[in-house]
Design goal:
Keywords (chains A, B): Isomerase, tRNA processing
EC number (chains A, B): 5.4.99.12
CATH superfamily of the largest domain in chain A: Pseudouridine synthase I, catalytic domain, C-terminal subdomain
Shape of chain A: globular
Largest sheet of chain A: 9 strands, mixed
CATH class of the largest domain in chain A: Alpha Beta
Pfam families (chains A, B): PseudoU_synth_1
Oligomer: homodimer
Helix content of chain A: 10-25%
Number of helices of chain A: 5
Number of domains of chain A: 2
GO molecular function (chains A, B): RNA binding; tRNA pseudouridine(38-40) synthase activity
Radius of gyration of chain A: 19 Å
Order of helices and strands of chain A: EHEEEHEEEHEEEHHE
CATH topology of the largest domain in chain A: Alpha-Beta Plaits
Strand content of chain A: 25-35%
Family (chains A, B): Belongs to the tRNA pseudouridine synthase TruA family.
Chain lengths: ~250, ~250
Amino acid sequence: MVEYDGGPFSGWQWQDDQPSVQGTIEAALARLESDLPRIAAAGRTDAGVHGRGQVCHCDMAREWKAETLMNALNHHMRPAPVAIVAAAPVADDWHARFSASERRYLFRILNRRARATLEAGHVWQVQRALDADRMAEGAARLVGRYDFTTFRSTMCQAASPVKTLDAAEVEVVETGAGRELHLRFRARSFLHNQVRSFVGTLERVGSGAWTPEDVTRALEARDRAACGPVAPPQGLYLTGVGYDDDPFSG
Amino acid sequence: MVEYDGGPFSGWQWQDDQPSVQGTIEAALARLESDLPRIAAAGRTDAGVHGRGQVCHCDMAREWKAETLMNALNHHMRPAPVAIVAAAPVADDWHARFSASERRYLFRILNRRARATLEAGHVWQVQRALDADRMAEGAARLVGRYDFTTFRSTMCQAASPVKTLDAAEVEVVETGAGRELHLRFRARSFLHNQVRSFVGTLERVGSGAWTPEDVTRALEARDRAACGPVAPPQGLYLTGVGYDDDPFSG
């Protein structure tokens, strides 16, 4: 299980000329064994998106004690803001991406007039007051099995735009200095930019520019042009991945 | 009311050759009016210590609408991680420091083996497992009116080492990836380095190196040398200041 601050990275995915989370972990693995295959992750997060409970796997040549491997990787990744926070052995046919039965995302909106200081880079700041109840009403309209073409990046490589969204919730968190909205989404899998497209659209509802019914109209349009603005990446966290055969449970 | 990330600053207090929170706010004020006096704050936090509910005041020459002043200052402070999150007019004899009847501090310990990523710079990371109950027992022994010489920096300029600590609590917060200990302290006023000296000492108790009784022995020694290590600044937050005549209530 991997935690990272997405800020300094071009995203999860390895790129030959830019720092990536995958590249950081693979460089540390290369200090331990040679000629390892690429690692695979449950969610290939975009540039700036954070990991809280990202999961990846690697086929090691040697038998490693999970804790030893974790500590060695964390040592070699210093000072990059990437840490292995849990490790476990898995069956040969277990795959971090293909075995996953659920992905969970959190999107944090700092809803206040004053600029973010301590949360800078970790929230999307929206200055105008947002109506969380309206946003929750809009979010509920997205739950279910739909053609999500409207909320899918034109770069999306998924075979089908039909997905089942299992949950979309809006929680208001009053903090010491301001107010955060936490938007949580849960599904077996997501399309590229789906969560950020949801959030940008729901922000339009919260600000009063859209009605909750407009969300249904946008969904039914099955047209990328019907989507609200795409929310920026720095508020988004991959918080967890579910597996029927969860290597971290028990 | 001021929020700031203490990381890039040499502390609250203005220094002619280093960035400070006070200097950042005063530079923004200087864009609005000339020849202003220095601003005064409830707590002069050290280098690296964060502000969540710091309070400062300034004698302005013109009559400002609180919100206009706040927005103008926030505009001029960009991109420094300092924000005015609330502003209010006060009586001429009201003083952010001398009128304060209570200061509240939070200290965050990230208690896990893997290095902090998303929380880097905002927590003190302790790798060995800490016993929160033992720490709470140790903390309770500090509550009351005592000569706190043991927990006072040798640089402290307070007239007397006798202070009354009103509360010292330890809360365990299970987060998505790890465990945080939140230590909260409340008093009319604190000595220099008092909270960090408390936390460093309580960490010794949590790790098993000290017993809770050793905290009482250290307190009663009234000797700086009897103190545990001083905890690092990045876990410390000035979270709030209390006033009998609170400008922000109502």
